[in-house]
Amino acid sequence: MPSTTPDRNLALELVRVTEAAALASARWIGRGDKEAADQAAVDAMRSVLGTIAMDGMVVIGEGEKDEAPMLYNGENIGNGTPPQVDIAVDPLEGTTLTAKGMPNALAVIALAEKGSMFDPGPCVYMEKLAGASDIVDLLDLDRPIEETVKLIAERRGVSINDITVVVLDRPRHVDQINKIRSAGARVRLIADGDVAGCLLAISERTIVDLLWGIGGSPEGVLSACAVKCMGGELVARLAPRNETEKQAALDLGYDLEKQLTSNDLVRSDNCFFSATGVTGGDLLEGVRYVGARGATTESLVMRSTSGTVRRIKATHDRHKMQEFSAGKLG
Length: 330
What we know:
The chain has helices at 11-26, 34-49, 95-100, 145-156, 174-182, 194-202, 217-230, 243-251, 262-265, 318-325; strands at 55-60, 76-77, 84-93, 106-113, 125-131, 164-168, 186-190, 210-216, 233-238, 271-277, 288-290, 294-303, 308-317. By secondary structure, it is an alpha+beta fold.
């Protein structure tokens, strides 16, 4: 009888999904049309997902907060055969980055056992802290951020001047950014993409020590899957945008004071994550064109049960890219 839980490395199949989305959206890099780039990624991702042997449902979709094209919540994905899984997607994290030709845009997907992913309900945003495994116990959203960066410097035996915090460049973060800088730490502002920011914070390959800020709830669940595969920790707290959203969350029984860990955001220890670079950045190379027919991609592919993290570089036929961008299979 077929297993109802993921018992094979679906991450190695999901990488085809993020590669397809990256190849399709890369045709729109620097062309100033973020909606077209997003739609290309969505169409390509949906097409390849339909070929994978799984019975999946999108529980964390992207796009509701800005009415972008999306793989919608509740959409059934896969060919309908076991295993049954929850899926979180961001077909193009960094639509504006792509449209402007800026670094660090990614195509991202995560998968876990059915019923294991946190549903943020009406709350579009979360406050988040993320860092590597050696500072997990220091991640506390109730502690002033300037104190946390000092504790991280002490823990790592470095000057506070050597600590770097990655933060989304938003007006809502100005006060906290000033506090981080006043403490003596560095702030690395990013225009978009706090899944990429979380990966930078938990990776040993970068100089980023911490992610802080209020970002999308879907990205929080995606990041939690990455954390469970790669290590480190993410803590998050729902951040309603207004009183109407706050009351809606309270009416549904959400605890708005609770600090959610990666185990709260993804209750399964059997999850998978894949990200492919669209525009080049600190974490991954972007799509690169080779000659008249070719293109290359770089992806980060992870599985939590084994803790395996793979970097996969692939070469693709450019004619297939045109098919991907039209939402077809190559």
